[in-house]
């Protein structure tokens, strides 16, 4: 019985790590403009440490066309709303 519980815990941990790794893959698409882990170079908006809800709102505004953009409206449409929330949470958790 203990082995079964330990196995379930290990499987849950592996699943959680896989989810974190997937979010990092999605967020890596932002690196060209917003820098690695959201620490942008001069001239681009940094994302690291920003408020998650603010980031989600901006991403949703790009996705729906409420906020004009050159690339972000196209990029944001490639993600589900849940994926955008996870990406925003990732950047919000990064240190400035």
TrEMBL record:
Signal peptide annotation: 1-18
Could you list the residue ranges that cross the membrane? Answer: none
Q: Which UniProt keywords apply?
A: Electron transport, Heme, Iron, Metal-binding, Signal, Transport
Per UniProt, what is one GO molecular function of this protein?
electron transfer activity
Where are the coiled-coil regions? none
Q: Can you give the residue ranges of the Cytochrome c domain?
A: 10-95
Under the heading InterPro entries, the entry gives: Cyt_c-like_dom (IPR009056), Cytochrome_c_Oxidase_Subunit (IPR050597)
What Pfam families would the database entry show?
A: Cytochrome_CBB3
Instruction: Tell me what this protein is called.
Output: Class I cytochrome c
């Amino acid at each position: 019985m203990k082995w079964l519980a330990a196995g379930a815990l290990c499987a849950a941990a592996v699943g959680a790590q896989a989810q974190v790794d997937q979010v990092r893959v999605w967020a890596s698409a932002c690196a060209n403009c917003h820098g690695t882990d959201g620490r942008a170079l001069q001239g681009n908006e940094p994302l690291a440490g920003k408020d998650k809800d603010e980031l989600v709102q901006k991403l949703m505004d790009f996705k729906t066309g409420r906020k004009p953009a050159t690339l972000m409206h196209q990029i944001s449409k490639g993600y589900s709303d849940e994926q955008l929330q996870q990406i925003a949470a990732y950047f919000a958790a990064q240190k400035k």
